[in-house]
Automatic annotation (TrEMBL):
Taxonomic placement: Eukaryota, Metazoa, Ecdysozoa, Arthropoda, Hexapoda
Transmembrane segments: 20-39
Source organism: Diatraea saccharalis
Main location: mitochondrion
UniProt key word Membrane: yes
Protein name: MICOS complex subunit MIC10
Matching PANTHER family: MICOS COMPLEX SUBUNIT MIC10
Keywords: Membrane, Mitochondrion, Mitochondrion inner membrane, Transmembrane, Transmembrane helix
Cellular compartments per GO CC: MICOS complex
Subunit structure: Component of the mitochondrial contact site and cristae organizing system (MICOS) complex.
Function: Component of the MICOS complex, a large protein complex of the mitochondrial inner membrane that plays crucial roles in the maintenance of crista junctions, inner membrane architecture, and formation of contact sites to the outer membrane.
Subcellular localization: Mitochondrion inner membrane
InterPro entries on file: Mic10
Keyword Mitochondrion: yes
Length: 84
């Protein structure tokens, strides 16, 4: 089994922005290369599909990472008390 992730919320949140930038950029680059190699002309739709796929993968990873952290917290510590 993999060992548990010990990062706090701010570190995970900052890592999400880096993940978004890297995966979206790589998706745009791969989409433009595939479009130019296979379509023999400059088309924009493969770039948009590649960028969208990269953005979607980054969003899923970020959501999973943040939800793991938030669900592992003690629920009793997050209770808001009512005022009398």
């Amino acid at each position: 089994m993999s060992k548990p992730d010990k990062r706090d919320f701010e570190e995970r949140y900052a890592a999400c922005f880096v993940d978004f930038a890297v995966k979206t950029t790589v998706g745009l680059l791969i989409g433009s290369m595939m479009g130019s190699f296979f379509l023999r002309s400059y088309r924009r739709w493969p770039m948009f599909i590649g960028g969208g796929l990269g953005f979607g993968m980054a969003y899923t990873n970020c959501e999973h990472s943040l939800n793991d952290f938030l669900l592992s917290m003690d629920p009793k510590a997050c209770v808001i008390k009512k005022q009398p």
